[in-house]
Design the sequence.
């Protein structure tokens, strides 16, 4: 557990600068599952340098805001999943398939045409860059095996469960390499576990356990209702969450602010640290310190204060940078005031 009461972090993404990412194009479509070069503003010869600069800014903003654990802001990514999933062997991204997004709309996705394998590290260079430039603890995100199996057209395996197990094996090797590189926390994005809870129970938990097999470093899993910038109708309870108590993951990341969620579901996760989403990204205003504190107090009804980590709900990449920074500053201020009141 953290030695600091109410440590602060972000889920993964941070606001990408407008000179880097075409936000109008980004918001005008579902998150890309195959590569989407058209979203980037810089020309090819300048893109890597521009992404490096954006990551430096994201780290600087997080540290200046006072976060305890920082990420690279996913500054080199078009979406949370496609960088990793498209880099695996057995995937055809030149002739994409289709699958239903969590909203029920068809989207282009990677097509599985052979055994899913990882030929080598995918995010490790990004992790090393983050470690080199950060002065706080570090976290990096990767997509989960169940979600990747849902975001692909399966033209090879007998079923999605079999594909998910090979995704899990590839992810397992990546997680171990990320920890070996020096990353403090690896966070696994599994939003489709909430969206498709029955299938998640059928084979998603087993695949998730395979992804964590033999992992000794700290891990987190993020479950959410989808980006507030794109999905406006939100349930008021989780259909899938306590099932993760049986896994070895250390932290569970969930959102409560946008859906005004009662965190009673957390009673089913007595052994986990909880990243409690307390910043509403559906609101482009700046959450007040008092509003953030009240969201934390809701969680304290069900979780010991020593197990709570403060975070935004997910999807900060869609938020204007100045607003994102101000939201984080208020979250850090709320944490400080709660320490004084409850510590």
Sequence:
């Amino acid at each position: 557990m953290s030695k600091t009461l109410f440590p602060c972090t972000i889920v993964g993404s941070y606001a990408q600068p407008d000179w880097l990412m075409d936000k109008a194009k980004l918001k005008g479509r579902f998150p890309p599952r195959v590569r989407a070069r058209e979203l980037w503003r810089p020309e090819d010869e300048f893109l890597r340098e521009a992404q490096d600069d954006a990551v430096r800014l994201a780290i600087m903003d997080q540290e200046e805001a006072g976060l305890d654990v920082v990420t690279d802001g996913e500054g080199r990514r078009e979406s949370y999943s496609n960088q990793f999933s498209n880099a695996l062997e057995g995937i055809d991204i030149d002739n994409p398939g289709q699958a239903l997004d969590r909203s029920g709309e068809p989207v282009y996705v990677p097509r599985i045409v052979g055994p899913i394998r990882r030929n080598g590290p995918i995010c490790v260079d990004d992790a090393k860059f983050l470690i080199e430039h950060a002065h706080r603890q570090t976290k990096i995100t990767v997509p989960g095996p169940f979600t990747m199996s849902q975001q692909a057209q399966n033209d090879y395996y007998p079923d999605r469960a079999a594909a998910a197990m090979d995704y899990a094996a590839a992810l397992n090797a990546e997680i171990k390499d990320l920890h070996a590189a020096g990353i403090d926390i690896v966070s696994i994005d599994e939003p489709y576990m909430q969206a498709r809870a029955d299938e998640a129970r059928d084979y998603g938990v087993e695949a998730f356990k395979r992804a964590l097999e033999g992992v000794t470093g700290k891990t987190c899993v993020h479950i959410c209702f989808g980006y507030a910038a794109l999905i406006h109708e939100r349930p008021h309870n989780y259909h899938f969450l306590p099932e993760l108590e049986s896994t070895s993951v250390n932290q569970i990341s969930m959102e409560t602010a946008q859906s005004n969620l009662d965190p009673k579901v957390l009673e089913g996760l007595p052994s986990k640290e909880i990243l409690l989403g307390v910043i509403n990204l559906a609101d482009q205003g700046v959450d007040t310190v008092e509003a953030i504190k009240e969201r934390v107090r809701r969680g304290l009804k069900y979780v010991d204060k020593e197990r709570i980590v403060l975070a935004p709900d997910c999807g900060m990449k869609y938020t204007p940078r100045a607003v994102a920074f101000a939201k984080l500053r208020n979250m850090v201020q709320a944490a400080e005031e709660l320490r004084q009141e409850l510590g």
Q: What stands out?
A: The first strand starts at residue 69 and ends at 70. The chain is about 35% helix and 15% strand. The CA atoms of residues 193 and 200 lie 5 Å apart.
